[in-house]
Amino acid sequence: MKLTDFITISDVENHIIGKSMEGRIFPARDDREAWARVPEALQQAWVTQAESYLNYEWPVLRATAFMAYFEEGSRKPYDSVETERRNALCTLLIAECMEAKGRFLREITNVIWLFCEQTTWCAPAHHYLSLRPVDVLSNSEEHLFDLTAGETAALLAWTSHMLKSPLDQVSPLIRARIQVELERRIIAPYLKRNDFWWMGFGEREVNNWNPWCNANMLTVLLLQEMEPERKLMIFDKVLRSLDRYLEVQLEDGGCDEGSTYWARAAGMLLVNLELLYRASDGDLQVYDQPLIRKLGQFVYKMNIDGHYFVNFADGSAIASQDYSMIHLYGSRIQDDQLRALGQIGFRTYQVPASRGKGISFFQEMISLHSFASIQAEAALAPPLVQDVWLPNLQVMAARESEGSSQGLFVAIKGGHNDESHNHNDIGHFVVYVHGKPFLIDIGVETYTQKTFSPQRYEIWTMQSGYHSVPVINGFEQKEGRTFRAKDVTYEKNKGIVRFGVELASAYPTEAGVRSWHRSLTLHRGQHPAIELRESCLLNSPTDQVLLHLMSNQLPQMQVQGSIHLQDSDKNQLLLHYDNEQWEAAFEQISLTDESLTRVWGDNLYRIQFKLLHTVQQGEWVFRFAEQ
């Protein structure tokens, strides 16, 4: 699909150029009737949070904080300060729009000035975008358009747009300065450079950066004044760049970056589409296109129960989704299952102080101005899909019963080991019982310099040895697109659903694997169970075969051939294996990283099955069931 097949520059010229954006995308500050519809409790929560920034001692961005990324590998010293500044400005802006009393204008001016005085808006982790990336500081004469620069630019554009008259009353120089900085830091680089990889005009394949950066560019473009001809030039480039993203999307709508990244992939594509839709009064839209629909539906297909999602790739099992955006997407494509997920998740909406992450003015405005209407909707059934098969992504998910989290849930993947945010995990699977995790995907630690470097696979969470796949003759899976799944099959009938995959090509030649076929079957009915069947043919006889399973529950070694897992709610899973063929043991892994402890607590467990006999060819069955 190409966006430019449906929205042309002529369409943009006819439906957007020359139109005022005042109150068109979101209610204006002076539209007191619209702001009064935001529930009073929410208004008070935002205002209270904004009051904490009155007479605020704004955090300093030190040169040494920028340098810390290159010297120590840590993103936190710089990124945490910059994120806090953006969160503060977003909060102050929303509170000022709610009150319209001018109470927050002085602190808004302070933080605007801080942003305008920053040497760079680009995060140190993204400094590789520079034409001269060797220094540990940023060159003030080279402006780099990355995710954080885009977020800062869009927020300043919204601030200038929403507070035009109040800021001009303080001083016309405030908005004029914003315009100068947006021009030199964002608009000019976007127009002049084609080598930012995320634009898609080079050889590197794009990922979520593309719709994310383009959404911020489109925000600036719509809200800032400039000559119509120049606007059209930028619109043309935005649309062509978004085409590069759509061209690499899978036909089944699957996101190889994982469900946690849905908000920054399909969710950011939605921001682009919604900006075009609202700016044109609904005339420019592609919500009826099959690919757009499938990209949106992916997120509920990966929902296990509540806030638990299938988290292959760099994802957390407890995903922090923006549920108002999910609901909006569902409304636009008229999908009640997507709307239902939005409804359910939106019940836990809170002001950003309790979320501990960067916040977006666009997404918060969607939440605030749809809150009352979503709460008033008739409740929809939970979108707990019984069977999911994504043949292009090569992911299967299945549960015992449609619409219920009760019983067994399983998900397994094929793919290749050069996916975006890749882990070496071909054939990896997870098992949940009554919507709770038992056999898991660990997720990913807090990002550091190492995460996206040539040393990525030195990180334990990226290695296949900490996923539910074999280690053969001492060799784990290797990274790279040539290390991939083959002969992936899917079968479903009334009683079973089965995924099959050939894993041999995921391992280096030195592993000596001619064939390793894995099949995973969910048996439904009176005696539900999950059956894992492994069959192998090796180059030479060996007993150096290990099978690993990762769990968040303490394994209880029971009678020979069984392992018992139980969670704090008394949910249970029993693992059966052939103890004449395998020796079972486990190790405790202590966690210290906040991104992992937030989900799993202080410990995880790696269950290890070691082959007891020398084989060259073999077949084994493992069985998982509730006790």
Automatic annotation (TrEMBL):
Pfam family, one: Hepar_II_III_C
An annotated GO cellular component: cell envelope
InterPro entries attached to this UniProt entry: Chondroitin_lyas, Hepar_II_III_C
Primary residence: other
Gene3D superfamilies for the chain: 2.70.98.70, Chondroitin AC/alginate lyase (1.50.10.100)
GO molecular function: lyase activity
Domain of life per record: Bacteria
Name of the protein: Heparinase II/III family protein
Localization terms from the record: Cell envelope
Source organism of the structure: Paenibacillus roseopurpureus
